[in-house]
Each structure stands twice: as structure tokens, then as C-alpha cells.
Design a protein that fits this description.
Elements (H helix, E strand, L loop, with lengths): L1 E5 L6 H12 L2 E4 H10 L3 H11 L6 H12 L8 E4 L5 H13 L6 E6 L2 H9 L1 E4 L5 E3 L18 E2 L6 H12 L2 H9 L3 E5 L4 H16 L1
Parallel strand pairs: 1-3, 1-4, 2-3, 4-8
Antiparallel strand pairs: 5-6, 5-7
Length: 216
């Protein structure tokens, strides 16, 4: 199976990706992981990526696409793959289709885990982390027994700067620019939308149904 995961930050893509990988045995590929692996291997592509990241710049589409092409050639992708965080633009989506065609493969489905923006804002801004042991809590979904105090080590809980409302709002606005991707895959009949507001297990049951149907 060749699958991509679409969804805004906080929609639960990472949780679902881990379950898909475990159940279906396909490679889970995130853009961040690909970049880190290329940099660690000190490949020519990796050195180019490092130059952009070290400068605090976004990695351009053409370079990102070349990293993805290289990753899809790896042996663990022979049974299929799950792309998470790529594509992010129409150019990347079209390039992915072209690359797969050259490889004699095709994208089977784009799984879109949809959650309204106001729900995502509450999810993302509610996270709190222990300064001492790193344990993670959520003010709504997994609150500590005592406000501001870690259950495990009694350390102080804090909110990361990128979980603050202003930052999260900016991230969600930036990601909303990928909305044309949803239309792109819907128009080609490859989009499957999943309600991400359901409990995690229910979301996964729907995802699993879709993937099992693909397997025939």
C-alpha cells in the first residue's frame, strides 16, 4: 500500500501512523525523519538540507522532493509506505505522483484526518510538560492530579513556547495553506476523510477499515 496522511497539527496523525505501521508492516516516513537521516548519513542531499535548516530556512520543494525520491528507493518501502508530513504543497503532490509513476507504482489513498480548527486549538494549547522528568499532560484530556505538579516526580509543569495560543494559531494558519491538497486528492478519487474528533480507537477502526478494503 502507498498511503499519505493529511491533517492539521494536533489531528492525531502520529498516533494513527504508529498503529498503521504496526498492523500493516509498511514503512512510516515523516519529512523530519528523512531530513535527519540524510543529514546523519552526510549524503550530498543531506548536506544541502543541513545548510537550509542551519540557516533557519524552509527546505525548498525541489530539494524535499529529491530527498523523498531517494527514501522511496530504500528496501523497506518495497512492501508499501505511509508518508506523514509530505506532500505539503500541490507541487510536491504532483511531483510525488510523477515519481511513483516512474517507479511503476501509484498512490492508493490519501487519508485525511479532519478536526475543526477550534478543537485543534484546545488540543494543542492544553499540553503541559514536567520540567524535571519530561512527562506530558493535557489540561483537558490527561490532567495532573494536582494543578501544575507532575504526578510522577512532583516537578513543575510548564507550557512550551510553541504550545502557546499565538504560536499555535500561526501554525494552524500556515497549515491551512495546504487545503488545496485535499481538493487535489478528492478530485482524483483518492481522498478518504476520517472524523478525527472521535476517540482514538474509533478513528483507528475507521482508518483500518479503509486500508483493509484497499488490500482486497
Amino acid at each position: 500500500m502507498q498511503v499519505i496522511l493529511l491533517g492539521m497539527p494536533g489531528a492525531g496523525k502520529g498516533t494513527q501512523a504508529a498503529r498503521i505501521r504496526e498492523d500493516f508492516g509498511i514503512a512510516h516516513i515523516s519529512t523530519g525523519d528523512m531530513f535527519r537521516a540524510a543529514i546523519a548519513a552526510a549524503t550530498p542531499l543531506g548536506l544541502e538540507v543541513k545548510e537550509y535548516l542551519d540557516g533557519g530556512k524552509l527546505v525548498p520543494d525541489d530539494l524535499t522532493i529529491r530527498v523523498v525520491e531517494s527514501r522511496l528507493q530504500e528496501p523497506d518501502c518495497s512492501r508499501g509506505f505511509l508518508l506523514d508530513g509530505f506532500p505539503r504543497t500541490l507541487q510536491q503532490a504532483e511531483a510525488l505522483d510523477s515519481t511513483l509513476k516512474e517507479m511503476g507504482r501509484q498512490l492508493d489513498v490519501a487519508l485525511y484526518i479532519h478536526v475543526p480548527q477550534e478543537v485543534l486549538l484546545a488540543r494543542l494549547t492544553g499540553r503541559r510538560i514536567c520540567k524535571d522528568c519530561g512527562a506530558t499532560y493535557h489540561l483537558v484530556f490527561q490532567p495532573p492530579k494536582q494543578s501544575g505538579v507532575c504526578d510522577a516526580c512532583q516537578g513543575e509543569l510548564y507550557q512550551r513556547s510553541d504550545d502557546k495560543e499565538e504560536t499555535v494559531t500561526t501554525r494552524l494558519k500556515q497549515y491551512a495553506q495546504t487545503a488545496p491538497l485535499v481538493d487535489y486528492y478528492r478530485s482524483s478519487g483518492r481522498l478518504q476523510e476520517v472524523d478525527g474528533q472521535q476517540p482514538i480507537d474509533d478513528v483507528y477502526q475507521r482508518v483500518r477499515q479503509i486500508l483493509l478494503k484497499l488490500q482486497g
